Amino acid sequence: MAEVISRPWHHRPAHLFLPHNTYMVTAGTLYKQHLFHDSDRLKSLQELLLGLAEKHGWQLQAWSVFSNHYHWIGVAPERATTLRTFISHLHTASARAINELDHTAGRKVWFQYWDTCLTFEKSYLARLNYVQNNAVHHYLVPVAEQYEFCSARWFEANAEPALRRKVESFRTDHLNVPDDF
């Protein structure tokens, strides 16, 4: 059964939470600050994301983390409304960790997040390709599998060749994904 979370303010669309459906989530740091600017910080954020996804029952299918934002695609658990709790936990824990490293207690780290329920296969496959190749989009590596802080290498090693070819065939240049980081 779908659960719709509605907001009274007209600029915020209602959020549709469907159990066992696939979602894409994007979040950015406040003022697009590059707070996760080295390998140790990126590794810590990636490990936190993967661990908390499992803890909150979300099955991640793709992810990429960067110095000032992240994207992930995952399948919701039975209670899809746990997304808010999961993101809150991730943002609170990562903010505390990064603020401790920078000796800036109480600094706001994350700006907000955007979630999209992916209800069409083509939309899902295009976004899967987008997340896998986001490091290439940001000119960090020439080939996605070279970027350590995303799922592209795992996908290359574990996905069936037919699925890899299918995902790679989807264009991403017309997607509406917040990514002006």
What fraction, in percent, of the residue positions are helical? 25-40%
Q: Strand fraction band?
A: 15-25%
Can you give the mean pLDDT? 91
The CA-CA distance between the termini, in Å, is 35 Å
- Radius of gyration, whole Å: 16 Å
Total strands: the figure is: 6
Please trace the helix and strand order, writing H or E for each element. Answer: EEEHEEHEHHHH
Can you offer a commentary on this structure?
The chain is α+β, with helices and mostly antiparallel strands and about 180 residues long. It has 6 helices and 6 strands. It has helices at about 40-55, 80-100, 120-130, 135, 150-160, 160-170; strands at about 5, 15, 20-30, 60-65, 70-75, 110-120. A 4-stranded antiparallel beta sheet has the order 4-5-3-6, with helices on both faces. A two-stranded antiparallel sheet has the order 1-2. A hairpin with a 3-residue loop joins strand 4 (about 60-65) and strand 5. Helix 1 (about 40-55) runs antiparallel to helix 2. The termini are far apart.
